[in-house]
Specification:
single chain, alpha+beta, Ribosomal Protein S5, domain 2, Alpha-Beta Plaits, 2 domains, six-stranded mixed beta sheet, four-stranded antiparallel beta sheet, 9 helices, globular, binds cytidine-5'-monophosphate
């Protein structure tokens, strides 16, 4: 009997990201406040003998259809860890811009783990999925959870964040410049500006990757300035290693007004809410 199922892959935003030190393994110890948006990719699955992936949607071209797609790597890792040979015909609707600081690939991999856990009837608890996810990428465990949380270590050590931000209106703006993550980390000035104290006011925190990302993609500075001058935001910040910047608003009318003010710049915009 064939069946079909679908799973949302919410976009990830970093409401704050503090870099602490470069590690011997080339990764960086950091602290971050992860949040997730109702906007995101969508992954669906149908019964099939082998594993396959078709990528559709606005950013399908940039995402790549290949065997190295993180969705297929996640599917293969889960099947191997569960000791099953079941197949899955996966279709990804790629709406999240690629190399954009929105964790698109990580969100897709995490959605694949949740979806196939259900589709294959594995009934793994979330903690077992997040443990497997850490091997797929630093942000994948947080994306498995897809709720506001505090990340440390490489980003894979997760704890609760005390504020409930669910429903908060958010505007995402990307100047349509792809920014590769590795070079932004490499461009960090290696100055430890201090930790994130859990529960700290978001406005008192930072994204320590901003200067290094702006050096690679100066348009990020234009986006941040435009979001500030549009007014009404309770927080304006670059997400991850950029180039997407986010602004949070107290209500949807304020978000709408800011989106209208930025609408003529030719940038990519998404109006959404935090989960
Ligand atoms: O884990 P992931 O493959 O998503 O990371 C992409 C790249 O980002 C890594 O190869 C590394 O250069 C950098 N990175 C880092 N420190 C982290 C997370 C990512 O240096 N905590």
């Amino acid at each position: 009997m064939s069946h079909f199922d679908t799973e949302a892959a919410p976009a990830k935003v970093n409401l704050a990201l503090h870099l602490r030190r470069r590690r011997a393994d080339g990764y960086h110890d950091l602290e971050t406040v992860f949040a997730f948006t109702a906007f995101g990719d969508s992954l669906s699955v149908a019964t099939a003998p082998g594993l396959s992936l078709v990528v559709e949607g606005a950013f399908a071209g940039a995402a790549g259809q290949g065997d190295d797609n993180l969705v297929l790597r996640a599917a293969r890792a889960l099947a191997a860890a569960a000791g099953i040979g079941d197949g899955a015909a996966l279709t990804l609707d790629k709406r999240i811009p690629v190399a954009a600081g929105l964790g698109g690939g990580s969100a897709d991999a995490a959605a694949a783990l949740r979806l196939l856990n259900r589709f294959w009837g594995l009934r793994w608890p979330e903690a077992r999925l997040t443990a497997l996810a850490a091997d797929l990428g630093a942000d994948v465990p947080a994306c498995v959870v897809s709720r506001t949380c505090f990340g440390s270590g490489r980003g894979e050590v997760l704890a609760a964040w005390p504020d409930d931000l669910g429903g908060m209106p958010i505007l995402l703006v990307n100047p349509l410049v792809a920014v590769p993550t590795g070079p932004v980390f490499a461009g960090w000035d290696r100055i430890d500006r201090g930790p994130i104290e859990p529960g700290a006011a978001l406005n008192s925190l930072r994204n320590d990757m901003t200067a290094a990302a702006m050096a690679l993609a100066p348009a990020i500075g234009d986006v941040l300035a435009a979001l500030e001058s549009a007014g009404g935001a309770t927080l304006v910040r670059m997400s991850g290693s950029g180039a997407t910047c986010l602004a949070m608003y107290a209500d949807k009318a304020a978000r709408r007004a800011a989106a209208a003010a930025l609408g003529r710049r030719g940038w990519w915009l998404a109006e959404s809410e935090l989960l």
